[in-house]
Amino acid sequence: MKHLKWTLALAASLVTGAANAEISDNVVRIGVLNDISGIFQDTNGMGSVEAARMAAEDFNGGAKGIKVEIVYADHQNKADVGNAIARKWLDVEGVDAIVDVPNSAVGLSINTLLRDSRMTFLASSTASSDLTGKACSPNTIQWVNDTWATGNTTAAAMVSRGGKDWYFLTVDFALGKGIESEAQKYIETHGGKVIGSSKHPLGTSDFASFLLQAQSSKAQVIGLANAGGDTINAVKQAAEFGIQQSGQKLVAFLLFINDVHGMGIKVAQGLQLMEAFYWDMNDDTRAFAKRFAARPGMNGKMPSGNQAGVYASTLAYLNAVAATGSDNAKDAVPEMKKFKGKDKLFGDTTIRRDGRVVHPMYLFEVKKPEESKYPYDYYKLVSTIPADQAFRPLAEGGCELVK
Question: Which CATH number goes with the domain that contains 310?
Answer without folding.
Answer: 3.40.50.2300
